[in-house]
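#onboarding

Welcome to the new folks! Below is a worked example of what a typical request in this channel looks like: someone posts a single protein sequence, and someone else replies with the predicted structure as tokens. Don't worry about understanding the tokens yet, we'll cover that in week two.

Example request:
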Amino acid sequence: MPSDQATEKSDLLLNLGAIVERVPPAPIIDPMHYVNRARTLAAEHTADASRPGRGFFADQFENEANWRAHYNGTGPEILAQLKGRIHAFVAGAGTGGTISGVARYLKEKMPGVQVILADPQGSGLLNRVKYGVMFDAKEREGTRRRQQVDSIVEGIGITRVTANLEVGKDLIDDAIRVDDEEALKMARWLVEKDGLFVGSSSAVNC
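Example response:
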């Protein structure tokens, strides 16, 4: 996992017996990007006859089982829980599986429902939805940095269109920017008012 992610995540995995390798944040084309590193480790495990079992690379960004799970599970659950009384679905996108799968299901059942992408600061998806270009203000000339995303929000926000997002991107009606301060305020509100202890990425959806 990326080394800039909360240590609580890797600590939990370690306590469950996993081997965790934290790698520096890197572009997706870098072999040491956490996705590429995971793919390599799975292949190495499979190729090593001295190790039991084989490696499995879930490929959550590109594996279409991701969006299909939300089409078959999350979408129907939302519709049933709200008894069909739904006007809009708001969600962030990391792999793109949730927003694509739910959007496809809801739009089939209720064509008028609005699907809104909630995008954290530093992500290029808002501009991709609104203007058709993958761009963030941090990328303008003279301001580009090696690592573009500068946000406390983990797990959502990205600067590429994944296979899972591709499936539903044309069903997204609009996008809104949610900055770190807004996410923190909502997370605090949810725990104080609703007793829901969630992280910043969940708060972005609200």
